[in-house]
Structures are given as structure tokens and as C-alpha cells.
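Field log, afternoon session.

UNIT: design team B
ACTIVITY: writing a sequence onto a fixed backbone
BACKBONE:
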């Protein structure tokens, strides 16, 4: 059984301003996550990939029980080791966070306490979850900072968050997340602010955690290089829904949803012929339609047909078992496309 099992997760933010009454101004709710399902097993790395605003962080915050209660409605199920995270009481989920569940946040400055030295923030976790105190806790904290590539860890332990660079703060947060050896780690763009050598070091550390301690890792990123280096299974999100789910190799070899296809086609490759232009996906994530009216990606899609505007497309497996695609007109080799129409209708 999967350690984390997410089933039709949805998150809606109530619109602000105006009111419900006619004539009192528009009040539009935001459906940030719209029926997302995936699983993460122990020792597995699962990626959530997609453009800015597609619902990655909101998915993570919903799983961690960190969304505000007011003005937000969360639907679906999310089971962690058999217990439903979404209906769990505040105290229970707080106990889980930091011990079995940990998250590396996208914004490091707002996740560290600005008036407490880094060392105290790290040792607090070691004391609370691993019972380490005094000198052994300090030594372990220094070794954790060293492992995430922070030079001169003894000095850095005494410093406050504002004395560290953005990349160092991010690494301190990573050290805090791995300090308690969580069973599930959610990493939200953990390496975006870091230069490539440190990025490689952090990815190596996360890999080690997964391989040696069997940690389940939910990796949120828009960096396909990170996905290629780390993920076993990948979920590509678009406008709050998974549009393609597959094993890493399968996805990179056969991206089948036009969005995933475009995403992979838009990254620079060293093995591409000289002068071959990059092919960005046209438009932006704002050019979308509601899923209820068809495929949200249709306004940007090079392959769209009128069929794409007739209700939400279902997930199908037009290529291979376990390779799910939400598209009525997927990108397939010419000889198999006739068969596809049957599968996806
Ligand atoms: N507190 C909030 N109130 C209203 N809307 C919100 C709130 N938080 C997020 N959203 C909206 O939810 C959608 C998804 O946001 P989310 O932060 O999950 O995107 P993301 O995929 O993590 O993007 P990025 O790659 O930029 O971090 C966006 O349209 C965003 O504007
Ligand atoms: Mg985000």
C-alpha cells in the first residue's frame, strides 16, 4: 500500500470583494486544485510538475494541513499511512508535521523565525524529534549544515536568518526538514534559488534520504532537469489537474499530452542540431478555459480540435499501461493514432 494516497483532491479559494448578491460586484472563486490523484510509496520519488500557478504549492499545503481554514474549501481524500490527512484534527496533524511529515517550503525567508539563530532552530527539531540535547545536538546540527553545503557551519549556527544568503537559508531549511528523518518529505521547488553545484549537492542529499532511509519524496518543481535526475514517477499538472502521469523514462521518451510534449520540446538540449530553434509553448497559463468547458490547455494547443471543447477530457492510457493522459487528441506516432481515437472516446 502507498504511504501517501491522494484521491481527487480539490482546493477552492473563495473570491474576495463584492458579495453573493446581484449587483454587489463579481465574486469569483479560484479552483486552484481540481481533482488531483496520485500516490507516493516508501522509497519512491514522485514529481509534481507544471507552470507557475498550476496548483503545485496549494496541493502541498493542503496535504500538510497548512491552508487557512477560512475562505478555503478542500475536497477529496488524502491518506497518509491509512489516516485521512484532510479530516484530521489540528493537534494530530501538528504532531505528524515535523516528525513523519516534513516540507521544504518554496519561500525560505518566511519559513524561518527571523529572531532566532539558525542553530537554535535546528537543534530544537533534533531535541523534539530525536531527543538530542546539548553538545550532541549542536554537533549534529553542524553536521547537517555541512551536509547541505553550508560552509563554516559552527559560525553559521550562531547567525540569524537575515545574515544568510537566500541560497543558504534554503539549505538551512532543507537541513531542518531532513533533521527529523521524515517518512514523507514534500519538497516545494527546493533548489530553484540555488546555483547548479549546490543544486546537485542537494539533489544528492535528497536521493540519499530516499535510498538509505526509505523516505517517500514528493518533489515539486518546474525544472525538468530535476525531474530527470530524481523522480521515479511524474505527474504533469495544468490548471489544477493532472494532464499526464507516467514513469520518468516513459514520460521523457513519449510525452503524449500536447502540454507535456511542448514542455519537453521547449528545453534546450546539447544534442540538438546546431541552429535548431527552441519551441516555446505559446501563450501563458492565463490563456485557459474552465475544465468544465473542455480542455483547459486548448487555447494554447497546436493540436486542438472542436472535440476539445466538449467537457472535461477523461484520463486514458493511449500508449502504455500506467501512462495516463487527459487528452482527446494526444500526440502519438502516426501509425497508432487511429487506435487512440477509440481508447479516448
Ligand atoms: N491564498 C490564496 N488565495 C487565492 N488564490 C490563491 C491563494 N494561494 C494560491 N492561489 C491561487 O491558486 C493557484 C495555484 O497556486 P500555487 O501557488 O499552487 O501555484 P504553483 O503551481 O505552486 O506556482 P509556482 O510555480 O509559481 O510556485 C494560483 O492561481 C494562485 O493564484
Ligand atoms: Mg509554488
Amino acid at each position: 500500500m502507498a504511504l501517501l494516497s491522494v484521491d481527487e483532491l480539490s482546493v477552492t479559494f473563495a473570491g474576495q470583494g463584492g458579495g453573493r448578491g446581484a449587483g454587489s460586484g463579481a465574486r469569483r472563486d479560484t479552483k486552484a486544485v481540481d481533482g488531483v490523484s496520485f500516490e507516493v510509496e516508501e522509497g519512491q520519488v514522485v514529481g509534481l510538475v507544471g507552470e507557475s500557478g498550476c496548483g503545485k504549492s496549494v496541493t502541498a499545503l493542503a496535504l500538510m494541513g497548512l491552508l487557512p481554514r477560512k475562505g478555503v474549501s478542500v475536497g477529496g481524500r488524502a491518506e497518509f499511512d491509512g489516516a485521512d490527512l484532510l479530516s484530521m484534527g489540528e493537534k494530530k496533524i501538528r504532531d505528524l508535521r515535523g516528525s513523519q511529515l516534513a516540507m521544504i517550503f518554496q519561500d525560505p525567508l518566511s519559513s524561518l523565525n527571523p529572531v532566532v539563530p539558525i542553530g537554535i532552530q535546528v537543534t530544537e527539531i533534533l531535541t523534539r524529534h530525536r531527543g538530542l540535547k546539548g553538545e550532541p545536538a549542536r554537533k549534529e546540527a553542524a553536521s547537517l549544515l555541512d551536509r547541505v553545503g553550508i560552509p563554516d557551519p559552527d559560525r553559521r549556527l550562531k547567525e540569524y536568518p537575515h545574515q544568510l544568503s537566500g541560497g543558504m537559508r534554503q539549505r538551512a531549511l532543507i537541513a531542518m526538514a531532513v533533521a527529523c528523518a521524515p517518512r514523507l518529505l514534500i519538497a516545494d521547488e527546493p533548489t530553484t534559488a540555488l546555483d547548479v553545484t549546490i543544486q546537485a549537492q542537494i539533489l544528492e542529499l535528497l536521493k540519499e534520504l530516499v535510498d538509505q532511509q526509505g523516505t517517500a519524496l514528493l518533489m515539486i518543481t518546474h525544472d525538468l532537469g530535476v525531474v530527470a535526475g530524481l523522480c521515479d514517477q511524474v505527474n504533469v499538472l495544468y490548471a489544477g489537474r493532472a494532464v499526464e502521469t507516467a514513469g520518468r523514462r516513459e514520460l521523457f521518451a513519449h510525452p503524449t499530452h500536447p502540454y507535456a510534449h511542448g514542455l519537453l520540446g521547449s528545453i534546450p538540449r546539447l544534442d540538438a542540431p546546431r541552429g535548431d530553434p527552441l519551441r516555446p509553448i505559446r501563450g501563458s497559463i492565463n490563456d485557459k478555459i474552465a475544465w468544465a468547458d473542455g480542455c483547459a490547455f486548448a487555447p494554447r494547443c497546436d493540436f486542438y480540435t472542436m472535440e476539445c471543447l466538449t467537457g472535461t477530457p477523461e484520463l486514458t492510457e493511449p500508449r502504455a499501461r500506467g501512462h495516463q493522459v487527459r487528452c482527446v487528441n494526444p500526440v502519438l506516432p502516426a501509425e497508432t493514432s487511429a487506435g487512440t481515437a477509440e481508447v479516448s472516446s
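LOG NOTE: DSSP finds twelve helices and eleven strands in the chain.
NEXT ACTIVITY: expression trials, pending approval
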